[in-house]
């Protein structure tokens, strides 16, 4: 049986949600996710509040700053702090973005990597270095992007082939982001369901769903600032049909609705999970 670091329905923990979550006696949440960069170093009242959450819920972490596909050397000082954070709070797994975000400084955005064999080797080697340093397999997330770096046609890979090649060469896990697949499918003219079906399901750690902004009919922007729409829910069901019921986390970064409304989206995830299998997969040891 395939095992996962967490099970059920998850929520990205944002500071605006700490109050409602702590006051709710039984929110429909099985696990929480944080970006470690946003929580280290941390102490005082906020540190105590965070510790209360890590003692109450299983946690996963999703990084923002490693720049796995970038040209600059990996930041091993940051990785050292992340390693301590993961151990201190018993974080079940660590994931990062298959992108880059730094070049002689932080770019404060997740930039797309060229889809080439050279970039596959570069990113996979850096992922292996991270895994060796942390002493554990990490997961990578395929990112949303809006303009691809120019690549000679003879050297170009499809996005799916590129992601699959990095996963195989790095021997790492996958964070499947259903909304990213939807956004990229619209923006770049491919079938998001086919993209999801083509991913190696055995490598999936867990799944993200989120809302986005409709800039135009053919331009969607991944914002995590709106409710999940029906086509994205249908893509989540495609993933369940293809790979079985997967741990699934709702991302919401701003423009928060009333907490009960947010919980309705979490309950919808749970209802889809029940519809597509009900029985929870086994937990992988932390």
Which features does this protein show?
286 residues; alpha/beta; eight-stranded parallel beta barrel; two-stranded parallel sheet; 9 helices; globular; disordered C terminus
What does this 3D model show about the protein?
This protein is α/β, with parallel strands linked by helices and 286 residues long. The protein is built from nine helices and 14 strands. Strands 2-3-4-5-8-9-10-13 form an eight-stranded parallel β-barrel. A two-stranded parallel sheet has the order 1-14. Helix 4 (117-134) runs parallel beside helix 5. It is globular. The model is unreliable at 280-286 (pLDDT under 50).
Short synopsis of the structure:
The chain is of the alpha/beta class. It has helices spanning 15-23, 44-56, 76-88, 117-134, 159-170, 178-188, 192-197, 230-243, 259-275, and strands spanning 3-4, 9-12, 31-34, 59-62, 94-97, 100-102, 106-111, 139-141, 173-177, 204-210, 213-216, 219-221, 248-251, 282-283. Helix 4 (117-134) packs parallel to helix 5 (159-170).
Question: If you compute it from the alpha carbons, what radius of gyration comes out, rounded to the nearest whole angstrom?
Answer: 18 Å
Mean pLDDT: 90
Strand order of the largest sheet: 2-3-4-5-8-9-10-13
Strand residue percentage: 15-25%
Shape: globular
Q: What is the makeup of the main sheet?
A: 8 strands, parallel, barrel
Subunit arrangement of the protein: single chain
- The SSE order reads EEHEHEHEEEHEHEHHEEEHEHE
Q: How many helices? A: 9
N-to-C CA distance? 17 Å
Low-confidence stretches: 280-286
* Class by SSE composition: alpha/beta
The strand count comes to 14
Helical content stands at 25-40%
């Amino acid at each position: 049986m395939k095992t996962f670091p967490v099970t059920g329905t998850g929520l990205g923990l944002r500071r605006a949600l700490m109050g409602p979550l702590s006051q709710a006696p039984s929110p429909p949440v099985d696990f929480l996710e944080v970006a470690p960069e946003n929580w280290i170093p941390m102490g005082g009242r906020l540190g105590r509040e965070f510790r209360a959450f890590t003692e109450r819920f299983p946690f996963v972490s999703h990084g923002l700053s490693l720049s796995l596909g970038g040209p600059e050397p990996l930041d091993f000082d940051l990785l050292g702090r992340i390693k301590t954070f993961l151990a201190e709070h018993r974080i079940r797994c660590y994931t990062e973005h298959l992108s880059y975000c730094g070049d002689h400084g932080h770019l404060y955005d997740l930039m797309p990597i060229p889809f080439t064999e050279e970039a596959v080797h570069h990113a996979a080697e850096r992922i292996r270095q991270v895994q060796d340093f942390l002493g554990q397999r990490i997961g990578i997330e395929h990112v949303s992007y809006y303009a691809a770096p120019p690549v000679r046609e003879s050297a170009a890979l499809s996005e799916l082939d590129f992601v699959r090649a990095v996963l195989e060469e790095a021997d790492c896990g996958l964070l499947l982001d259903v909304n990213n697949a939807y956004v990229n499918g619209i923006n770049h003219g491919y079938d998001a369901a086919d993209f999801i079906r083509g991913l190696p399901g055995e490598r999936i750690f867990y799944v993200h769903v989120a809302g986005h902004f409709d800039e135009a009919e053919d331009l969607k922007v991944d914002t995590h600032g709106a409710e999940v729409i029906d086509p994205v829910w249908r893509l989540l069901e495609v993933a369940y049909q293809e790979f079985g019921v997967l741990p699934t986390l709702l991302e919401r970064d701003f423009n928060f609705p009333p907490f009960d409304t947010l919980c309705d989206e979490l309950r919808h995830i749970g209802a889809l999970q029940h519809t597509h299998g009900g029985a929870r997969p086994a937990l992988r040891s932390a």
